[in-house]
TrEMBL record:
It comes from Mangrovactinospora gilvigrisea. It holds the Pfam family ADH_zinc_N. It catalyses: 2-deoxy-scyllo-inosamine + NAD(+) = 3-amino-2,3-dideoxy-scyllo-inosose + NADH + H(+); L-threonine + NAD(+) = (2S)-2-amino-3-oxobutanoate + NADH + H(+); 2-deoxy-scyllo-inosamine + NADP(+) = 3-amino-2,3-dideoxy-scyllo-inosose + NADPH + H(+). Its EC number is 1.1.1.103. InterPro entries: ADH-like_C, ADH-like_N, ADH_Zn_CS, GroES-like_sf, L-Threonine_3-DHase, NAD(P)-bd_dom_sf, Zn_alcohol_dh. One of its GO terms (molecular function) is L-threonine 3-dehydrogenase activity. Homotetramer. Zn(2+) 1 binds at C38, H63, E64. This is L-threonine 3-dehydrogenase. Its cofactor is Zn(2+). Zn(2+) 2 binds at C95, C98, C101, C109.
Amino acid sequence: MKALVKEKPEAGLVLADVPMPETGPNDVLIKTLRTGICGTDLHIRAWDGWAQENIAAPRIIGHEFVGEVVEVGGSVNTQDVAVGNLVSGEGHLVCGHCRNCQAGRRHLCRNTVGLGVGRDGAFAEYLVLPASNVWVHRNPSALDLDVAAIFDPFGNAVHTALSFDLVGEDVLITGAGPIGVMAAAVAKHAGARKVAITDVSPYRLDLARSVGVDLAINVAESSVAEAQTKLGLREGFDVGLEMSGRPEALREMLANMTNGGRIAMLGLPSEDFAIDFGRLVTSMITLKGIYGREMFETWYQMSVLLEGGLDLSPVITGRYGYREFDAAFDEAAGGRCGKIILDWSTEK
Ligand SMILES: NC(=O)c1ccc[n+]([C@@H]2O[C@H](COP(=O)([O-])OP(=O)(O)OC[C@H]3O[C@@H](n4cnc5c(N)ncnc54)[C@H](O)[C@@H]3O)[C@@H](O)[C@H]2O)c1
Ligand SMILES: [Zn+2]
Ligand SMILES: [Zn+2]
C-alpha cells in the first residue's frame, strides 16, 4: 500500500510502498478515505527539534482521518464496530493499567502513545487501530467526509471550549488557527453571549469572522482592552480559551479577565515563560491545561453538535489528492489557510 513516511532522520516525507499493517485480535483495519494535516505533521516534515526528540524513523505519519472498516479482529464485538462502518479514531493510545486508565479517565493516561508519532499513523491507504480507539459515525449520510476527517482537532476545540460553562458568558479566544476558529463556532453555538478572538494574521481573522464571532481583533494593531470597550464589557471576559501557544497572548488574556474568570489552555508554548501570578492569585483565576480529547465524551459532544447544526465547513479551505502531499503541506505551513485535507480515496 501507499503511505506517507518519514523515512530518514532528516527533513522531508516520502510517498512509499509499504507492507499492509497486521490486524490483531482486538484491532480493526480501516481503509483511509480522507485525512487532515496538523501542525504536528508539519513539525515532522520539517524535522525540527520536537520531531527529532519524538519520532523514530521510519514512521508512517498522520493522525486526523476518516475511513471505512474493512476487517475486524476475532475478539472485537461487532455490535461496537463492524465491517462497513464509517469511522474516525482517537489518536491517543492509552496504557489501560495506570491509575487514571483504571478509573476510566483515559484522557489522563500517563503513558499515552500518539498515532503517527509513537506508532504508525493514518497517512496511508490502510491503518490499524485498537477497536477501543475507534469512533463510529452513526449517521454517515448526514456527515461531510472532510469534517469527519478533522474530528481529532475538532475534539481539541470542543474539549477546550466546553471545559467551563459558557452559556451567557463573554468568551475571549487567543489564536484564530483552525482550532481557535472551531472553538469560536462551538462557543457561539453553545450559547456564549459575546465571542471575541485574536490573531496577528488578517487571513485567519477573516476566517473567524466567517463562523460568526462578535469581534476579531488583530493584536498587532489594537488591544484586547479596546475590544472590551467595543463589546460593551464592563468587568472583563468570563471565560478564556488560549489557542495560540504564545506567551504574550496568555499574558494579555490574564489582564482582561473578570475576577473569578476561568481559562482553558490548549496552545502549546515552545518554551517556559513568565506570567503575572499576582494577578492570577488576587483575581482568583482558574487556569486549566487541556490535552487531547476526553474518551469518549468529547466525541459524543462533537457528533451531537454537528447533528444540532454546527457548521464547520468554512474551516476547511484546501483539498488535495494524497500524491500532491508536498503542495498540501506547503499550503498548510504557509498559514494562509484553515484545515487542509488529503484525499486517499482517489488515484488523483
Ligand atoms: N493540547 C493539545 O492537545 C493540542 C492539540 C492540538 C494543537 N495544540 C496546540 O493548539 C494551538 C492551536 O492549534 P492550531 O492547529 O489552530 O495552530 P495554528 O498554529 O494554526 O494557530 C495558532 C494561531 O495563533 C496565531 N498567533 C500567533 N501569535 C499570536 C498572538 N500574539 N495572539 C494571538 N494569536 C496569535 C497564529 O497566527 C495562528 O493563526 C497550537 O499551539 C497547537 O500546538 C494543542
Ligand atoms: Zn492533530
Ligand atoms: Zn494509562
